[in-house]
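ugh ok fine here u go
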Amino acid sequence: MAKNRKTRKQKQQMQARNAEVSPQERVEKQRVSHSKAARRQAKQEAAKRKQIRNWAIIGLIGIAALAAVIFRPQPVVIEEAIAQRPFKGAADAPVVLTEYADFHCHGCEGWHESGIIDDIIAQFGEENVRYEFSHFPQFAPPLAAAAECANDQGAFWPFHDLLFDNFPAQMADLNGYAEQSGMDVAVFEECVDSGKYDGTVREMLNYARVSGFRGTPSFQVNGENVQTDPSSIIAAIERELASSN
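structure:
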């Protein structure tokens, strides 16, 4: 009974205190309470967003680091491939025009068919401009590797021409092109089947990307990237020849 009387007394005291609080004060207390809760929730949400942002940044850094490893050309392989680039013109010409191309690139096939490169070389003379072909095999890496096998037998240019003349060339026809190019077909076939130049072709693809190219054909004049149009290439060659005199 004493316990019940104490409980009733406590309830009466609470009711008395609540009676002393005006409705406006109760509303204000509720508003303050809700405001504090809202601020706590906002802080929690901001902390979560910051954590997600930090993890995203860490993830992007990791992806960038991985890409740098994957796409970084191997120096020794690249140096050898550059040294062995097939070319037309004088080896000691003061200007080097480099084309980065793919044998299944419509634009590259168009440049080949139009004879633009031959016209540029004729305009300046082979003693002044050396034209080099560099693989940028975004679409047909196996054809690039096969062309390197043709280069082993000194038959790159006739094989190159046949690939573009029969655009889009197919792997099943390569032995026939090798025979037309004057190669030992058995040696060529063994080179292709062994994958001798598969690694080199991958590195050349990476090298073209690291050089800043995104499409084919792309061009450099004395190692400097130029716009893919004849007038830009000619202007760059003229500048290089003027500075070499």
